[in-house]
Specification:
It is built from 13 helices and six strands.
């Protein structure tokens, strides 16, 4: 289904944004400090207000930036894919990319689905917690397999690329059946141990999965998505309690244990238990969609990546996330990351876009392989 991956992204990010803040007063933060072991079922707690800014707060920014750089380049050109214009692989890649393309109206659907999933979890905590855990486990297995598949296929010299017809699924490469048990075991191990290393591996897989399966069709769509996410954060963090009687984000966050987040151990933490700072999945994926769009636009226009839209957008992301990390790490005040990320994009990427008039007027941004064939879909 055309919007299936977008709906799934909304549900998982809605749950993941909440799960990333398993504290009583920090709904979807850019960073949290854990004071409990990650192999327990206890929610992650923030650091005490007497603690100071930790170098790991800045390490979170670096890790998020590196993930986005890799994700954007992988979305632009999948590893080891023959990108010649007549390649059958490219045609299949373009069809899949078009199926996951987000239009202007789907940005509103995205926020509505994310909000509805949040309310459902709020009222039906027990049942929805089980459902989200099962959903996360299933998608994580697929995402992990998709992440490593091209590298394993290349390393094995395509010896297992022969396809087998499977009922209702169609042709499936043999390598998928070989890798599936490994991916499933990895997810089950995380479920049993709640290892922070496995947590990061699965979160990284999910980030790359969504960045490569969902893409933005225009700068207008990107602006709409981030603006809606900006107000989404503000509403559910600061206003929901006046309507629902309780802070919906906080209530759901304290009741879920679905760690869709990147965890980084604190370097200056004291005590026997490991403490962490983290960034939620939504604060990487949603801005990452704009970064992927910016890189495709640079590639199509032949702009140097060091001075194009991608560089400007990345700079805005890093500045905004750094500001959020400094505030959270120093003052321990609840700060939705989008409050900083969206203005950062507006000041950096938006200024560069106005200078180059880098908007897209067609329904599809052509990937680099279709540069000449689909050039009419880009407008300067």
């Amino acid at each position: 289904m055309r919007h299936g991956s977008i709906v799934l992204l909304a549900i998982l990010l809605g749950a993941g944004a909440v799960a990333a803040s398993q504290t009583a007063n920090h709904p979807r933060p850019a960073s949290l400090h854990s004071t409990t072991p990650l192999n327990s079922n206890a929610p992650v707690k923030t650091a005490s207000k007497s603690s100071h800014l930790d170098p790991s707060n800045f390490l979170v920014v670096l890790i998020a930036a590196l993930i986005l750089i890799y994700g954007a380049h992988r979305a632009l050109r999948p590893p080891f894919l023959d990108m010649t214009q007549s390649s059958a692989e490219v045609m299949a890649y373009e069809e899949a990319a078009e199926a996951g393309e987000m239009q202007l109206h789907t940005t509103f659907m995205f926020v509505i689905v994310a909000s509805c999933s949040l309310v459902l979890i709020f009222y039906f905590m027990s049942a929805m917690s089980i459902l989200i855990t099962v959903l996360f486990s299933f998608i994580s297995s697929l995402a992990l397999g998709a992440l490593v598949y091209p590298y394993v296929d290349r390393y094995t010299d395509h010896r297992f690329s022969r396809e087998i017809d499977v009922a209702y699924l169609g042709p499936i490469p043999v390598l998928v059946f070989i890798m599936a048990p490994v991916c499933i075991i990895t997810v089950v191990t995380w479920l049993l141990t709640k290892s922070w290393l496995l947590n990061n591996l699965l979160a990284f897989s999910l980030i790359i999965f969504f960045l490569t399966s969902v893409r933005l069709s225009s700068l207008k769509v990107a602006s709409s998505l981030l603006t809606l996410a900006f107000f989404y954060d503000i509403f559910w963090v600061f206003i929901s309690s006046s309507i629902f009687g309780k802070n919906v984000m906080v209530t759901v966050a304290t009741g879920l244990n679905v760690p869709i987040k990147i965890l980084v151990p604190l370097m200056m933490a004291t005590g026997k238990s490991m403490q962490f700072t983290l960034i939620g999945l939504g604060d990487i994926v949603l801005p990452g969609l704009l970064l992927c769009f910016s890189l495709r636009l640079d590639d199509h226009k032949g702009i140097d990546k060091k001075s194009g839209y991608f560089a400007a957008t990345m700079a805005g992301y890093c500045v905004g996330l750094t500001m959020c990390e400094v505030i959270v790490g120093s003052l321990h005040v609840a700060q939705p990351a989008m409050i900083y990320l969206v203005p950062g994009y507006r000041l950096a990427g938006g200024q560069r876009a106005r200078g180059g008039q880098g908007c897209v007027g067609g329904h599809q941004v052509a990937p680099p392989s279709g540069r000449q064939r689909n050039a009419a879909s880009l407008t300067s």
